[in-house]
Design brief:
The chain has about 280 residues and is α/β, with parallel strands linked by helices. Helix content is about 20%, strand content about 30%. The strands form three sheets. It has a seven-stranded mixed sheet with strand order 10-9-8-7-11-12-15, sandwiched between helices. Strands 4-3-6-1-2-5 form a six-stranded antiparallel sheet, with helices on one face. A two-stranded antiparallel ribbon has the order 13-14. The radius of gyration is 19 Å and the shape is globular.
């Protein structure tokens, strides 16, 4: 094996070509790509919460959380919000086009070990933050008997911004889940809750002393959600958040994603709240 920077696996430095099998428009600025390996390529195994670096040839690459089912055979799934030139170019791709993929990278949601099994789960997402949590939710649904009460709380800016609307409706229809959705601003045809998502964690039938919380969304939303969970009695070390930073190398060498003493690409994106609480409460964050 040839030497590579940092001694990393060469697969983590060189993008492999993956072909787009399907494009699904989710919201006005958000879309889902389903990818298949090109001839001779192997399926990619990942853990809930990990991300890939997706490379648009000639433009560059961006870190995107994997949003598919980690235990299912099928396409590699990424839900992407178009926020810059690379993701805007990806929004124009069609089935048959090819992207480069590096990964998977990063830490994961702790849903498959002793820390979670037998406990109540509170899963809180804001906006597109539901995409990085979707693999954890699918894992929990696949192994529902291993967990206690499961609460999924989701918030969006408006009803038009609700991601995975059909899945949320399907999950809500299950008798062994509590799914609650709120919007910041209602429209005339909205009959659901109005308000910020941290308020939802004040309810729910979970036992705070035996709860594991997973939170993903804008940083201000995660900060207030963590405070609401703490007020309910959930312990700091039992709250996990997913951070987003400008990741370039994805293996902790370039320094673009430094977050205090941490590198998000290497030490995250999933962190225990007690490990980064002081950083999240710095003025301006």
């Amino acid at each position: 094996m040839n030497a590579t920077p940092g001694g990393a696996d060469p697969a983590l430095w060189l993008p492999e070509p993956w072909r787009i099998e399907r494009v699904r428009r989710e919201l006005s600025d958000t879309f889902t790509l389903e990818l298949q390996p090109t001839a001779g390529g192997a399926p990619l195994r990942f853990l809930p919460g990990q991300f890939n670096m997706l490379y648009a040839f000639g433009l560059g690459e961006v870190p995107i959380s994997i949003s598919g089912d980690p235990e299912a055979d099928g396409p590699l799934v990424h839900t992407i919000r178009a926020v810059g030139p690379v993701t805007e170019a990806m929004r124009r791709l069609v089935p048959g086009d090819v992207l480069g993929v590096r990964g998977p990278f990063g830490s994961c949601w702790p849903v498959s070990g002793a820390e979670a099994e037998g406990c109540d789960l509170v899963i809180v997402a804001g906006g597109v933050g539901l995409a990085p949590l979707r693999p954890a939710i699918l894992h929990v649904l696949r192994h529902r008997q291993r967990f206690g009460q499961v609460c999924i709380f989701y918030g969006a800016r408006t009803p038009a911004d609700i991601l995975y609307r059909h899945e949320l409706r399907r999950w809500r229809g299950q008798f062994d889940l509590l799914v609650d959705v709120t919007v910041d601003r209602a429209t005339q045809d909205w009959a659901g809750r109005v308000g910020v998502v941290p308020r939802l964690v004040e309810g729910g039938g979970y036992d705070p002393q035996h709860t594991l919380a997973l939170v993903c969304g804008p940083e201000i939303m995660m900060r207030h959600t963590a405070r609401a969970l703490l007020a309910r009695g959930v312990r700091r070390e039992r709250i996990h958040v997913s951070m987003e930073r400008n990741m370039k190398c994805a293996v902790g060498l370039c320094g673009h994603c430094q977050f205090g003493p941490h590198f998000v690409c290497r030490d995250g994106p999933v962190f225990r709240f007690d490990a980064i609480e002081a950083l999240m409460t710095v003025d301006g964050l």
